Amino acid sequence: MDRSQMQEKLDKLIWKVEQARIRRSEHHIVKIVAVSKYTDIENIRMLYDLGQRAFGENKVQSLQERIEAIDDLPVEWHFIGRLQKNKINHLIRANPFLMQSLDSLELADALQKRLETQNANMECLLQINSAKDETKAGVMPEESEEIYLKVKESCPNITLRGVMTIGAHVEDQKVIKQSFETTYSIFEKLKKHGADICSMGMSNDFELAIECGSNMVRIGSLIFK
User: Fold this and answer.
1) Could you tell me the pTM of the whole model?
2) 44 by DSSP, 3-state: which?
3) What pLDDT, on the 0 to 100 scale, is given for residue 162?
């Protein structure tokens, strides 16, 4: 992909995000996290040069490799994949800007122990399984507020910044919207506890997610494919 093609794709995406943002509120602010698993280092550098700053990886090894390959640029790296416990030390070494997929109290406890041992800290989002999909990770909506507060209380090396969800994997827009509205209502309750990020929406549903209140979207294929 050449620079003009990437610029055109980025411009189209920003326009769609802006339109959805304004439909929500002219005061609403949305951050785009470019999911870079779909592309190579050269395209990440090109997109950075075009103004994109936040990038996401869903595998710890890929995150480490890309951070090392682009260590000359102050990229804002996000880890957006499911974290296996045997990869925790690798993630701590990678030290992403934000870990978006803290999907259980058990994982939080394991991460806390390693962070404490290494005298490190990490900012995270609690992943909500808003669609109650057995194939997806995350805490159940009805347990989310309690678990969020338990993590804040028992895991001092973890700073919770808010919540993340993956929209319902169905064709019915009403069902997808409901999953986003469920997560946003949880986010609203958690604001008084310092939550400021509600990460919802990917390439196929980000406009609906923004209209439901998302202030962070994870987009890959629309930019890099």
Assistant:
1) 0.95
2) helix
3) 98
